[in-house]
Give the backbone structure.
Amino acid sequence: MLPPSKRLATLLAACLLAGVCALALSSAAPAAAGSGSGQVRLGAAPRLPPGARIVASVASATPMRVTVTLRPRDPAGLSTLAKAVSTPGSPFYRQYITPQQFVKRFGPTSQQLKALEVSLRAHGLEPGTPSSNHLSIPVRTTAGAAARAFSVSFAHVVLRNGTSGIVDRQAPAVDAAVAPEVQTVLGLDTVSKAVPLLVRAHTVTRALAPRDRAHIATGGPQPCAAATSADSQGGYTDDQIASAYGLSGLYTSGGPGGGADFGAGQTVAILELEPYTLQDIQTYAQCYTVNGQPVNPQIANVNVDGGASGTQSGEAALDIENVIGLAPQANVLVYEGPNSGSGPYDTFSAIISQHAAQVVTASWGQCEPLNGFSQAQAESILFQQAAAEGMSIVSASGDDGAEDCFPESPTASVDDPSSQPYVTGVGGTSLASIGPRPSESVWNDGVTVGAGGGGVSSFWTMPTYQSAAPSSLRVINSGSSASACGASSGDCREVPDVSADADPSTGYTIYWNGGGSSDPTQQEGWQVVGGTSGAAPLWAALIALTNASAGCHGVAVGFANPALYYAAGAAYGNDFNDITSGNNDMTGTNHGQFAAAPEYDMASGLGSPNGSALAASLCTDAIALGYPGAQRSVVHTAVSLQLHASDTRGEGLGYSASGLPAGLSLNSSTGKVTGRPLHDGTSTVDVTVSDSSGTTARTSFSWTIQSNPSLSRVSLTGVGATRPKLSFTVAAGRDAPKLQTLTVALPGGLSFSRSRATVAISGLKVKHLRFTASLQRGTLVLKLGTAAQQVHVTISYPRLKSGGNLAAQVARHSGARVTITVHVTDAARLNTKLTSRIKPRS
């Protein structure tokens, strides 16, 4: 975390966006009437905090980057699906959808996107390419154009400490016709910043006794002497962290083939809002070895909105090094975006819409009130998409204890995005002894250093995985509240969900700022840092190892919270380390209300992980059933479709199905559908897979049976005169897509000339259809420019060249027949062979 003197600017600046420096939240109610004709405003206007001064207007030509976010097509359906695929015991547990299915079911339609783009252009803006999930549209513009388009005005503002920026004075307005589809407009200010949740060890003086510094042979990565020399600073190397949190069992016997599990096959995405120095990461990796070989991390960068800029704090180095030190064979994608305006949202959007990673970790956040509810709502849709698609997102819960808006306000508050219902919030502990099992307490070093974040959300009601947790876990306790979020029934979301080491006195040994290249004023090379920034990537690495473990059989954990609370309710002492001492009331102004207690508490969540045991619990009770997609077959043609499913326990599976087309059957043991469909038509097939423990998985898909295309009106004339002409008609079958490609093969004695073709193709109501023709291995391939239901083809001399054999045969035997073959490919890429026996004519 930044020092209080530097953080004041960040937090005050964020107030400008949210208008909450007195912690009186502005309403984020549905759109109100705007000043522009036919426009409505979204949310509420930001208010200036005490001490902030408007000093000037903003030049019209000032460049701006704006992101317009959209609502999903079916918000209730998305929420239901995200919950169903993440909840143990649900028949749809871990039956994740693909990004393509998300767009088809929940993304705004192409017509809605087009209408919004037209609206933006009508107001003088040039929208960019929509995100692949259809949930946002970027706009590069100027302050003048944005002010006119969204009916706002901008001002240069100087904050109490002299920091300046641009802020919009009104809530943005959009056309009433598109307002129901628009969530919010992000990027109209340049002062709101997320905070890196990292704390440096040199700010504290406590150190642990030498006896607690022993290194453990975990079976995982082992550090070199240069890293272990940092023990004197009080930190731990990753082999010690792995030992403390029970990862050894995964390393030694958890791989998919029964061997070691180091996260191979998994990709972890790391959100960063600052740059980093690759040489620092390489120096760290070269220090660690696995089975005597140096760690060789696969790291790639993805720049969003031009990438990250500014100075380094060491945050990125901590995040990356923790992941590669604990899951050394996992791939790492570092998404770097700007820390202003729509940058944080755009970076999350890129991570989730691209879905290149199974696990996501974020160690940047800001207090809920300062973040603003409009931005949190837009983020929430992204996190629901991630849950529906089986992505795990973990986020640091903040380093200001129960008072996340400190120093602006000592009032209890929590951090976004860790407080989001579809994010796993990770709190902080002080790791006194690595054990195993470890000895821990809640991290709280007071206002001069920091404390682990936690408490009650002011935005979100309590999700079911908390409200329905067994009473023995004490999730609902004396600190629970319904008033913070205005819940009409029940309580509000509680944070964190889990925790791990975050105390800089017992922190993480990293390599950063080698040679002073990143910040000559900071410590160089091997050093110890803390903060919940270190705890979040630790949990990301654990989930990656879990996904890659033999016990999960290739099924991703996905959104972890329901499974975490389920595991805690079933075998708490086996899977978690209980944190029972300390509190996170950093300022001492909230009477220590979030104190540690047995099982769950709002200072440490469910506690820290007992890794191998917890991984096994997270892998249980799930069947992965692949979605086969919509099927299309031809009547009376052999069908073979293999359904794919796996059980996390490795148990045998039984398959059943209803709605199969007549003539097809499903093997209940193998999951293979075979047969020959008897009739054309479309049906919905419902498949259920179950194991001996009663766990089930279901999926549904459509199956269309189409009739064969037909070949008619076939004639071959002019053979005897060596001026042959071939003509025929092809029509698509019933319930079949239109025709796309025709491949024509000729009988012996007749071949295609390579001279210029004389080919004509007509349709039902079109005299001339566009097409391309090519010769491929003696056949003529005709590709239609536009798919057609029926075509008539005429191929005339000199495209056909007769050989003597056929001509002589026709001359001798007027009744001789030859075979014409046409292979038909329709728009669904189904191929059918059609033949016709005809009498050539001279």
User: Anything to note?
Assistant: Residues 623-706 form a domain with the Immunoglobulin-like fold (CATH 2.60.40.10). The longest helix spans residues 532-548. The chain has four domains: 4-72+107-186, 209-257+264-619, 623-706, 710-838. The chain has a mean pLDDT of 87.
